[in-house]
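tokens incoming
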């Protein structure tokens, strides 16, 4: 029998959520059910599985025991009805678009969302007659003004990447529901440890598992977690039919990574707090954006809507792009790479890397300045990280 996790703390839930499907051998580790299909006991059993009279496994695109364990575990952390694991974070985003949008529908989104989340709508879904408005959702008035009678989806990312601007989740839930739209939150940057959008009124939360949840920089994956059974069934049907599912080995790896999520998140955030304060006081740093700093314009919202401030920092180095390049090329511990949420620190320059496809004026309008450097803080010793930044900044 699985452990009753009602009223248990987040660390206990991270450690134990998700039933072990091995009832035969008593394995403590979760087995990998590397099978595409599952045999029926007899013809009646097969028929009953298809009608839903009995529950069980049929075919791994529809459901797999290893994947299910991961889905159950992650849904528990987000207080959702269930989880739907996908092959990548973008497969999770696209499944949301396919569920809620169609010809003649309109969506409102955060202007500085993950690059591909915006591109898929503007370049691909537009071909099927989907309309969109991407606005600065940190301002609820802009959200309200962008809503149309045919708006079906309000899609936000908070904190947004890489501006570290926050959006008020409860405020957006109210606006979406007044208009009969659903609110979906990309919670990748916070992980289920630091922010739970479903408890703040969102209808669906999604993650790129590639980042904090897996946390080991070795798997790409995603998950969608709806609040209600109705939304769960709708989205699951779309994912199963269109096929962007997670495979059993991938599920095993991400579940293994997730068991240490709270430890990694806590350490990364302790390190980030100290580095943000260090950078803010450094004479060669022009500005720092970190929700835990009093200088963050939405520090109060961060404190009320999040359970911590995370481990993503953006900053501007004296000398703009040139100064930033000196830092990128001279740090020894943070590796120069895109992505975030792994055990190791990574550093990158959005204007020339992750957001280089965005038109310059749109990029600047979204608050991504030319000199912005993004640092994803890992679980190293903070003294080593600080000494490393110090020697790199001395060369600017
Ligand atoms: C990485 C990322 C995605 C896309 O996820 P993939 O796993 O790369 O497909 C979506 N949203 C955010 C906020 C991300 O950081």
């Amino acid at each position: 029998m699985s452990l009753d996790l009602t009223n248990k703390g987040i660390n206990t839930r991270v450690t134990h959520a998700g039933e072990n499907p091995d009832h035969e051998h008593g394995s403590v580790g979760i087995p990998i059910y590397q099978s595409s299909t599952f045999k029926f006991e007899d013809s009646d059993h097969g028929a009953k599985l298809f009608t839903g009279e009995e529950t069980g496994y049929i075919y791994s695109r529809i459901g797999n025991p290893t994947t299910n364990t991961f889905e159950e575990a992650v849904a528990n952390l987000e207080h959702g009805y269930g989880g739907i694991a996908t092959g990548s974070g973008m497969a999770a985003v696209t499944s949301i678009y396919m569920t809620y949008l169609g010809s003649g529908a309109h969506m409102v989104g955060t202007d500085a969302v993950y690059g591909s989340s915006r591109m898929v709508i503007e370049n691909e879904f537009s071909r099927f007659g989907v309309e969109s408005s991407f606005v600065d959702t940190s301002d609820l008035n802009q959200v309200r003004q962008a809503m149309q009678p045919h708006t079906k989806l309000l899609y936000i990312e908070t904190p947004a990447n890489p501006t570290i601007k926050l959006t008020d989740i409860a405020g957006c839930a109210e606006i979406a529901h007044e208009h009969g739209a659903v609110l979906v939150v990309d919670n990748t940057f916070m992980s289920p440890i630091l922010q739970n959008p479903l408890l703040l009124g969102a209808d669906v939360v999604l993650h790129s598992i590639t980042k904090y949840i897996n946390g080991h920089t070795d798997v790409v994956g995603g998950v969608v977690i709806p609040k209600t059974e109705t939304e769960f069934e709708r989205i699951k049907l779309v994912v199963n039919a269109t096929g962007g599912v997670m495979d059993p080995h991938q599920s095993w790896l991400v579940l293994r990574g997730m068991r240490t999520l709270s430890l990694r998140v806590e350490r990364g955030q302790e390190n980030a707090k100290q580095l943000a304060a260090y950078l803010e006081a450094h004479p060669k740093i022009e500005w720092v954006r970190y929700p835990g700093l009093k200088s963050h314009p939405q520090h109060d919202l961060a404190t009320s809507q999040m359970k911590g401030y995370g481990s993503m920092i953006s900053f501007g180095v004296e000398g703009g792009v040139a100064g930033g390049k000196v830092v990128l090329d001279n740090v020894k511990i943070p590796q120069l790479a895109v992505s975030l949420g792994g055990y190791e620190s990574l550093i990158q320059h959005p204007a020339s890397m992750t957001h280089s496809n965005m038109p310059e004026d749109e990029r600047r309008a979204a608050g991504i300045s030319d000199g912005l450097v993004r640092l994803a803080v890992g679980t190293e010793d903070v003294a080593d990280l600080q000494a490393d930044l110090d020697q790199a900044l001395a060369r600017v």
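note: Residues 226 and 233 are 9 Å apart (CA to CA).
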